[in-house]
Amino acid sequence: MDSRLEAVRDTVLARNPGEKEFHQAVIEVFESLGPVHDRHPEFLEGAVLERLCEPERQIIFRVPWTDDAGRVHVNRGFRVEFNSALGPYKGGLRFHPSVYLGIVKFLGFEQIFKNALTGMPIGGGKGGSDFDPRGRSDAEIMRFCQSFMTELYRHIGEYTDVPAGDIGVGGREIGYLFGQYKRITNRYESGVLTGKGISWGGSLVRPEATGYGTVIFAQEMLKTRGQSFDGQRVVVSGSGNVAIHAIAKAQFLGATVVACSDSAGYIVDEAGIDVALLSQVKEVERGRLTDYAARRPGSNHVAGGSVWDVTGTVALPCATQNELDGDAAAKLVSNGLIAVAEGANMPSTRSAVSVFQEAGILFGPGKAANAGGVATSALEMQQNASRDSWSFEHTEQRLTEIMVGIHDRCAATADEYGAPGNYVVGANIGGFVKVADAMLAQGLI
Ligand code: NDP
Ligand code: 2IT
Question: C-alpha 406: how far from its chain's center?
């Protein structure tokens, strides 16, 4: 790391003790930014990095709710409004028992750069709760969402902060959250949340957008080496929103996706994952991958273990942070891997990224490769603002153009800064310069 940035890093780490995922995300970005500060001394003089690493506002609140037996539970809610240089804070809500401030801050920090890369007018934020939705009834989920929004509503708005989904938050939860916001405020403010249902202000393609976008990004990387998805053997982690649509898109482009996972294990299906069955099991029935294996002849379920033990030419990590470590990366490389695109946020550890880069593997970091979700959220905001709704074809076309644009901007920035083919450098510098310029233009705030 550039020595001028080390002191800033040390201060950030000391000011935010115990937030190890936030530290990891900050260090990863700082490692790319030395050359930018050679060209832009004004960023140092303006203390842009110090300001960027301190969220503009952090909200932590109590979320009390009752389960179906009438027992009282208390969870913790978060919204970190990180940076509004380019637009209203924008980013998802995550409901998972592992959520704490360090997770929300890493996600919010990444979101600043990701959102800048989309070229759309959105700042960075993230939120969530340590609530565990697993095994909860619809009524319990609704009561939790209503309680969560009863505090959150005062902090958000279409011009202020626009939450969406992430792990554990999909269309059902956005519906309950939107309903409670509307009830409390007496405003049908469509643009306050994205990921809404199609009949009440949502956008076509938003459910598919992150997974589709990740595959489009990977396809653009493959093209730089004269390759495509056609005939690739793909391994995906996760089996939620991002994973399912990544699988669908990769197979549409001619690949065979032979494996995917959840937190209990993984399935191998040499014939290629049956997306309709996977979607039925995971999205409709909210079941487990064991249910898929039981209903799909020729597939098998492996309890525990690592999906990265499965041989593939393309890997798409679409589950969660730090799910792919250096050993897994080395194994994938020795098994013939040529490309990785991150559908999840920070799924590869720093040592995994080093292994991929040293082996010359095409590597698309999450803040570039998974930006299709938030970009389509911005398209949803556009449709809401103009009280319009676009066709699937038009919206998908916009998503494709945005992903190709992000790919090309990352590649061009990496070239410009003497690191050709390094999408990590391209994404970090490309996103940073845009935000830093806007911050300086807006004065010391
Ligand atoms: P979902 O809740 O729909 O699915 C999450 C999947 O990941 C599930 O298969 C889940 O398994 C698995 N998973 C979650 N946590 C863990 C864990 N700690 N260990 C192992 N497996 C885990 O979430 P999404 O698909 O929306 O999100 C997946 C990733 O994509 C996240 O990193 C998210 O931040 C990122 N992302 C999401 C976007 C979106 O639009 N939704 C946009 C950009 C990025 P199980 O069911 O067993 O818990
Ligand atoms: O990580 C992400 O980019 C998301 N979870 C989507 C955020 C959004 O506002 O659509």
Answer: 15
Q: Which residue has the tokens 């525990």?
A: 304
- Can you tell me the distance from the alpha carbon of 137 to that of 143, in angstroms, rounded to the nearest whole number? 10
Options 3.30.830.10, 1.20.1250.20, 3.40.50.720, 3.90.1150.10; CATH for 208-364 is 3.40.50.720
pLDDT of residue 243: 98
What percent of the chain shows pLDDT beyond 90?
99
Q: Does ligand 1 have an atom closer than 6 angstroms to the CB of 207?
A: no
CA 363 to ligand 1 centroid distance, Å: 20
CA distance 82 to 330: 35
Closest residue CA from atom 10 of ligand 2? 374
Q: 156: Cβ below 6 Å to ligand 2?
A: no
Residue 369 CA, distance from chain mean position: 9
Which pTM was predicted? 0.98
Kindly indicate whether the domain formed by 3-188 is annotated with CATH number 3.40.50.10860. Answer: yes
Tell me: pLDDT of 1 over 90: no
pLDDT at 351 over 90: yes
Ligand closest in space to the Cα of 365:
1
167 CA from centroid of ligand 2 (Å): 10
Best residue among 167, 245, 399 to mutate for probing ligand 1, ranked by most atoms within 8 Å of CB: 167
